[in-house]
Write a structure and sequence with these properties.
Length: 425
């Protein structure tokens, strides 16, 4: 019954590809040969793909003669079509993944039976599963597609006054890095306790304001604590007051309004993904199923996983390169938080951080499109004043911005409200 059902769905999708050019062009990124287990539907898919890409119209007799497939079979495919391409593709993709993952599971069981360490066998299986889930089986490598993509970016920048990607919510930062762009990996680095998470949370809120799906991986906070940070930014009520329960009726209303706003936004939060395989696997799933466009990772030096025997530097190289590959493959933007080493504070010098201060690895900088570093120029006199230093910018000039923390929001230094309580992150 299962095979008959899948076979019927394959025929229905072939019928749609035959009857409507839009079925192919609207879904070509999700279509691949792995969806078709039947020899006839596989042959028809490959031929219909060629026909649609050359802007020709398919004909049953021509297909039948060329592929040696009975015309009655092709006619049956068109009769199976019910205008549900997304449902058909999801069902076939699910079937494809189940078959592939079942094979991986069987191989892992055989390895364990033959004496392989169970943990090693499980880790190998996890890597193979993530490779299958993330494989791009239908990448268009032709120059035409590349030219069209480049022209689209240029036109987008023209229409949005230089912002190619998703706005950060800060005009001068958008001018510097072009927003959060497809395939980019933006690194935000700072000493511990300076407010990396709060700054990233501000950016997440700005993305959510545009109703663009966004995801935050937190390896340090529970979901409840991170939601309190978001609510504090929106409401202006400090997380300290929330934790102590020391809030007025007015503040209670502001907090409720903040959560009501957050509840409506396409924000996804993961606090259980710990290993690089779990993080990449989850990110792929949410990029594919929920169309998430911007991913935040807090923070890379505490990821787990990697090959046995690797030191911390090798592990960080692996994490950074895999995150960058994910951003490229799925055309999403990564914002990777990381720590700088404590040498910037040595002997009380309060040195401005540079790329060499990024903790544990130079690969983080190499894989990044832009590296932003936080610095407190007057830590004692004005602990709320901080500087964002752009140490690397692959597609533009290096510069810096001055900001102030005001109730967890970061604002322009010339926009400080009068009689406003300034509260560090």
């Amino acid at each position: 019954m299962r095979e008959q059902s899948i076979h019927s769905i394959e025929k229905a999708l072939i019928g749609g590809l035959y009857l409507k050019a839009s079925v192919y062009f609207d879904h070509h990124k999700e279509l691949h040969v792995g969806l078709f287990s039947n020899d006839k539907t596989l042959k028809l898919f490959n031929e219909l793909k060629r026909i649609r890409e050359s802007n020709r119209k398919p004909e049953i007799i021509s297909l039948s003669d060329k592929l040696s497939i009975p015309s009655e079979f092709i006619t049956d495919c068109t009769k199976e079509w019910r205008s549900k391409p997304t449902e058909y593709i999801d069902a076939l993709q699910s079937n494809f993944l189940k078959d592939q993952l079942s094979g991986i599971h069987s191989n892992a069981a055989m390895e364990i039976e033959s004496g392989t360490d169970p943990i090693e066998a499980t880790e190998n299986a996890s890597k193979q599963a993530n490779e299958i889930i993330g494989t791009n089986l239908n990448e268009d490598c032709g120059i035409k597609a590349a030219c069209l993509e480049a022209m689209d970016e240029i036109q987008e920048a023209k229409n949005n006054k230089g912002v190619v990607g998703i706005s950060t919510g800060t005009e001068d930062l958008d001018d510097m890095i072009g927003g959060f762009c497809k395939g980019d990996q933006v690194v935000l680095a700072a000493r511990p306790g300076m407010g990396k998470t709060t700054l990233a949370a501000n950016w997440l809120i700005e993305v959510a304001k545009q109703d663009i799906p966004v995801m935050f991986f937190s390896l340090e906070m529970t979901k409840a604590r991170f939601m309190q940070v978001l609510a504090a930014i929106i409401s202006g009520v400090s997380t300290k007051k929330m934790r102590n329960g020391d809030i007025t009726a007015k503040e209670d209303g502001l907090i409720q309004d903040a959560f009501d706003w957050l509840y409506q936004k396409p924000i996804y939060i993961s606090t259980s993904s710990r290993t690089i395989d779990q993080i990449i696997g989850s990110a792929r799933y949410y990029a594919r199923k929920h169309n998430v466009k911007v991913f935040f990772y807090d923070y890379i030096q505490i990821f787990k996983g990697g090959e046995k025997g690797w030191n911390t530097t090798y592990r960080i190289v692996d994490y950074s390169q895999r995150l960058k590959a994910f951003a490229n493959d799925y055309k999403v933007s990564n914002v990777v938080l990381c720590q700088v080493n404590r040498s910037v504070d040595r002997d009380g010098n309060n040195l401005k951080p540079n790329l060499a201060h990024i903790k544990d690895s130079g690969s983080i900088e190499q894989d990044a499109t832009a590296v932003l570093m936080m610095y407190l120029p007057e830590p004692k006199e004005n602990p709320n004043l901080f500087q964002i230093i752009l140490r690397k910018n692959r597609f533009g000039d290096k510069s810096s911005l001055m900001r102030l923390w005001v109730k967890r929001k970061f604002i322009m230094t010339d926009q400080l409200p009068t009689n406003e309580e300034s509260t560090p992150f």
